[in-house]
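Sequence in, structure out.
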Amino acid sequence: MPTLRQAIDTMNDPGIVRAQSDVALVQKVAELQKEYLLTDPRLPVKAALSRADGLDGPLDAKPVEVMLELALGTTLNVSDAAASFGRRWSTLKYLGLFENDPQARTLNLSPSVLAEVGANQRRVISEELGIGFAAHAAKHWCRTRYPGVGAISVIDVDRTLLNGSMPKLQRNGKRQPDYLLAFDDPTAPGRRRLELLESKGTVSSATAKSQLGRAVTQLAGLTVNGRTLTGLAVSTISTESGITLMAVDPEEDPVSWAPTKHDTDHWRGDEPKWSGEEPVVDFAPEELVAKATNVDYATLAEFAGMSSATTRWLTRFGTQGRSDLVTETRAGPGGTSYIGQELVFQVGSEIVRMFQGVEADVADGLRSGDPKAVMQAQRNGRPSSEDVADALKSGIGRDAASAVATTSEGAVLQLSVG
């Protein structure tokens, strides 16, 4: 088993995962979608499937970056102030899980760690790694199609459909996709383009293909004015032999809209009109963009411990009256700074620290409640993750082991020991 320092060093060490999105996979997924339709004719259909650009070959992945995507993707899963500590667990519990083959540079899961994991927990690991790697792959997919694109957000669909409310029960046989992707429309400045992402996770390629057959029907389950959206379905196969991402791209016409403060304020108080059983949920573009933007910016605010800003974006989330948890300001490179919260743990003789937050100018935008202010802050020039890592490490001592990840939206995560 690795030491804490070794585990954090591995988190910071990029490795190669294999991405597959070829014609044979697309054809197989199309066949499997037809089989699902035979068992449930009510399921919506993605008529055209294609290869996902940039996702057929080796793909670099740094574990701490994948864990940051997982942390952001699950930030709004818990609304209670006491239980909200569990959000941090999604990052910390996978310390030591990853290994990096020094010769092949391939990323895999530790056999010694997996040997201690039971079947139920192994299923949870697969599902959660599926979220992190799918978000990582989706952002690469977006940048491949639109070089130079700026902030790319991964937004919880359940929270969007429920307008911030917490689902009372976990849904089985989920009919809509997991996430929305939102980024500046490259053809229309000031507008946000919306696409979809469905994430799956497993340990076998046969199951992954079956999951993709179901996933593409979920991508068809959310529409705008009766039109399906472009989306990406990703199934992550994570084992001690390596990590493989299988992906298909059901491409459609683009959907975009310019979010305004009037729209985000207006739709914030709307009662949810969704039970979780509808095969297809249809939105007007201004409603979907406004509700998704509220969820997007509430996620960033809550991730950084800015509970008052979370409530500003999502009045139904349950943070009313909760004090902000922001405890730290960290100096970044070139005059940038980050605000957020730090958690400190004593593990034997070692001190483990986890800092998570957002860039200060993004935080100012989040506090304003104006989507244009956040979008402008996210468009500002952003330092490289390497420069951020150097700056943050200088603040904790050069002898400490440290792993740092940043996102295009302005979020930062640092794990350190020493």
